[in-house]
Amino acid sequence: MHAQTKRPGRRLRGVVAAGVTLVAAGALMAALPAGAAGGGRYQDVQLLSFNDFHGNLEPPAGSSGQVSEVQADGTTKKVDAGGVEYLATSLREARQGHPYSITAAAGDLVGASPLLSGLFHDEPTVEAMNGLDLDVTSVGNHEFDEGAAELARLQNGGCHPKDGCYGEGREFGGADYPYLAANVTDEKTGKPVLDPYWVWKRNGVKVGFIGVTLEGTPDIVSADGVKGLKFHDEIETVDKYAKILDKQGVKSIVALIHEGGAPASASYNYDCDAAGGGSGVSGPIVDIAKGITPKVDALVTGHTHNAYACTIPDPAGKPRMVTSASSYGKLYTDTTLTYDRATKDIVRTSVKSPTAANHVVSRTQEKAADMTALIGRWNELAAPVANRSVGFISGDVPGRGATTPEAPLGDLIADAQLAHAKSLDPKASLALMNPGGVRSDLVFKASGSEGDGVVTYGEAFAVQPFSNTVNLVDLSGEQLVSALRQQVSGANAASPKILQPSAGLTYTLDMTKAGADRVVADSIRLNGAAIDPSATYRVALNSFLAGGGDGFAALGEGKNPLVGSDDLKAFSDYLSANSSAADPIEPPAADRITIVK
Q1: Residue 136 CB: number of other CB atoms within 10 A?
Q2: Tens-digit pLDDT profile for residues 106-116
Q3: Of 63, 215, 392, 536, which sits most exposed with the smallest number of CB within 10 A?
Q4: Considering Cα of 8, then 10, then 14, then 18, what sign does the dihedral take?
């Protein structure tokens, strides 16, 4: 639909100072005609990519800001990574010596963001992406958190319709890069809500990009966010636009897909193809990759926040690179696409081609001064809100970075929601929190001028950024048991979503069994008493779960709803009421669910 266009003032890339270089693999060079690595018929095109940035302009805290790295002796170590000041430096150094370089992303650049970005409807992140010269991105599910109209504003610019402009004399200019939403259409017109594809051009070299989000986006976004929209099959959509690009003479195509997989190793630099093409990753992206037309030469993916660079065979049996760069700007992927000027296509041989590798966005490198200035400017605006103390903790409370299905921070949030619910209705008896809604960790160690153990409003915001409300509903015991079984069955069978329970709700999860049977029904207790299938329970849920989100249809069947305050207020109020500097909150033991492996 659109060829390459840049707003005035955007610089062309090519010449920058020293840094990381990427050389095409020797196996590929041996398979190509002489001169493939140089000028003439063949031209190497560098593709730099990342995904799931989620507004993490500042380095993520705790384990959320670390990656696991395999060492030469086979051991692993944790490496601190991320922060846009370092991401900008990494990308600028990686581009050095690559006049044909493209930077792309696979969605969720915004949404579920820390306060520094989220407080300002992610305008700071869009400005940062402009500054680090992002060329193109697909949409992700979180791009729809505030609805299609807000996504259009992020693309096109203009002040927020309710909050206005931030800073005197400043008007938000929008994204210099296109958001691609090929499989998201308007219910009335049937047309894509944003451009479905985009073409990068340089000296006769053309590379097309098709962007899609996961078809199941309506299941994980609030109903208001996707109102009036339809989400279509990823494979069918990519194939459709690959044909259109092919007819336009664009033979080199990359799909940006906000859907992902689960790697066999948690280390970003493991050999994904050691046991054979594609065997190093599982999950939805595998079937998608195997189904997408061979016209597409590489897949940049996301959503699962994992790191991998694998080859998965296309429908013709040829290996095709599929990559993902973790999340929060901790990694970037460097891929070499070898462009054949004669065929206008990317050379894909029986060997591993294109070549790709993930690289750490290390915090030991120099910060990008322009990003430091951007963060400082927005922090100055946010400071009066962000630095206010809301509570105290005695140690780290793992949430997003927890290594167990039941996270201490998930339990703490559930307790806070139950306390808020009881203030509205004393009959409230339990609360359930969706694990995907826990977006960060609470870290004990001091940050900036903050003291050890102090929880600021900014940190609480990073944990609960969605502005959901805390709702109360009546559920029968049978519906409650069904909801617990839906954690590990139906839509959640392949990737279980373990609800975080408030104190008093206990049960056993037997992972040696299959499907719904993993939840041991006769083990479910509320304050020591077995759940009565015919009894009515007053349950606190955030508005996302109360609408049946995350595949929990049973929770969407609740009766007699009562809407409370937003979840962030409930969480902050709970911390303030239940902790002090002298008596901080102890991290929950996360022992409400007994796991059998």
Answers
A1: 26
A2: 999 999 899 99
A3: 536
A4: positive
